[in-house]
């Protein structure tokens, strides 16, 4: 299995913009942390929606990497987010991802997003990913 | 009806981070333009998914403003995006939004996203918005 | 809290077509069982998609009833289903629902659907429900 | 291109339960009609949600058949429905489907559902379909 460090290095190359840190990653799951920047806040001190979608997308990508290996060409094909509560602007966002299906050409995952320290999720995400054929033969 | 300028000014206050420009906005529809920055590209020269979600979110917000007036507290409650084709990194993103339902407490809208100059959409979005009760009484 | 019997009776009035039986229901969760009929199979012996959506919808409705009381006017506003594996035609479908948010006007819930006896879900659903204002005042 | 009759016959084999009639079908689009039965009504005389999902699913399937040929193994992988208005219990449901993407392994389509005679849609659906590799080689 890939180490957290191997995944983190790969992530920096593939998602150079992301500030997400890999907290844990193993077959079928991942947790990533996103330190919220002042440029990511909406009026009222809450975190903008696209920031949350972006963190969920990274969490799902990390969980797939941890499950399949360093698959370069995996692409998000769909993402559904439900916003549940206002995230806190002064807390890190934690994204807890669980893979629901890891098929030959399609992966489906869900993510619960939290403001660190709170028990209730601020958003829930379901995403689907296309896995290129060639990369799955020798998995 | 609100002018394009009134909406643009309101947008700058509510979404200070957005680079979107309002191309057109009237009851039930809006078109916004997003100039893609180099910091928004993924390896391979394509536009990152969260950037597209963010542009769609702004287009839906603008269409709701153009339909209801300057409603401050409208919040995105859900967003579903399907990625259809790779957007081009050297073209503006255009988001064409049509409101599907404008209820008393809920609005539903769809958006087709394009790389400028192409006929086929790069992504399709459906979003739902909660409209605060007090703001809809005197609409 | 409502008893399983009270919810079952209410369900028969509101969803006269459903064959779902309430297995458990309490604040924030519900499990319902659907015996699959031969008229609900697709060629190949698998359960049709709309049957699964229908069972998930009932599970979410039951979980909301168990949480809010016998709210008559609650309506589904959106439903997203991801089909994960082929359900077995000769097994009951079990729907395990967890409420993600119970707001004043909006509830969000997720459901995992199983062929009885299998550990892996056959489908995953997220649904949103509009709760009428008048019914939530005295909850 | 397949004729309406060829598609209708195929549909009867693959979806023996459906009452949908193919109104039109050509590359990239389809319209199907569903006569609402009394057993499909909810209290208040409106059409149940799962019936609408089912009609949308058939419309998308017909549009894919009309575009790709009689592909047997195409399966729905996800479906998102937004309910917009109450459908009328005494009118046929018309489903107007447009394919958004027809890829090698994945198709994405949207459907607007109407009560016949009304201009405003009662529901909007986006669905994704997996197309088996072997069936797409000789398309």
Spell out the blueprint of helices and strands.
Four copies of one chain form a homotetramer.
Chain A: H1 4-14, E1 21-26, E2 29-34, E3 41-42, E4 46-47, H2 49-68, E5 75-83, E6 93-102, E7 106-115, E8 123-130, H3 133-137
Antiparallel strand pairs in A: 1-2, 2-6, 3-4, 5-8, 6-7, 7-8
Report on this model:
The structure is a homotetramer of 139-residue chains. Chain A is α+β, with helices and mostly antiparallel strands and 139 residues long. Chain A has one domain: Roll (Thiol Ester Dehydrase, Chain A). Chain A has helices spanning 4-14, 49-68, 133-137, and strands spanning 21-26, 29-34, 41-42, 46-47, 75-83, 93-102, 106-115, 123-130. In chain A, the strands form two sheets. Chain A has a six-stranded antiparallel sheet with strand order 1-2-6-7-8-5. In chain A, 48% of the residues are buried. The model of chain A has no long low-confidence stretch (mean pLDDT 90). The interface between A and B is medium-sized, with 25 and 25 residues. Strand 5 (75-83) of chain C pairs antiparallel with strand 5 (75-83) of chain D, so a sheet runs across the interface.
């Amino acid at each position: 299995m890939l180490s957290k460090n191997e995944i983190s290095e790969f992530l920096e190359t593939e998602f150079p913009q992301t500030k997400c840190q890999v907290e844990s990653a193993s077959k079928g799951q991942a947790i990533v942390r996103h330190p919220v920047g002042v440029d990511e806040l909406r009026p009222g001190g809450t975190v903008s929606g696209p920031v949350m979608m972006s963190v969920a997308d990274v969490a799902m990508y990390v969980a797939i990497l941890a499950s399949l290996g360093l698959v370069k060409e995996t692409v998000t094909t769909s993402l559904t987010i439900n916003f549940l509560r206002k995230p806190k602007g002064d807390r890190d966002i934690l994204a807890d991802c669980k893979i629901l299906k890891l098929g030959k050409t399609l992966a489906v995952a869900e993510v619960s997003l939290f403001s660190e320290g709170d028990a209730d999720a601020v958003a829930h995400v379901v995403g689907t990913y296309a896995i290129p054929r060639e990369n799955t033969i020798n998995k």
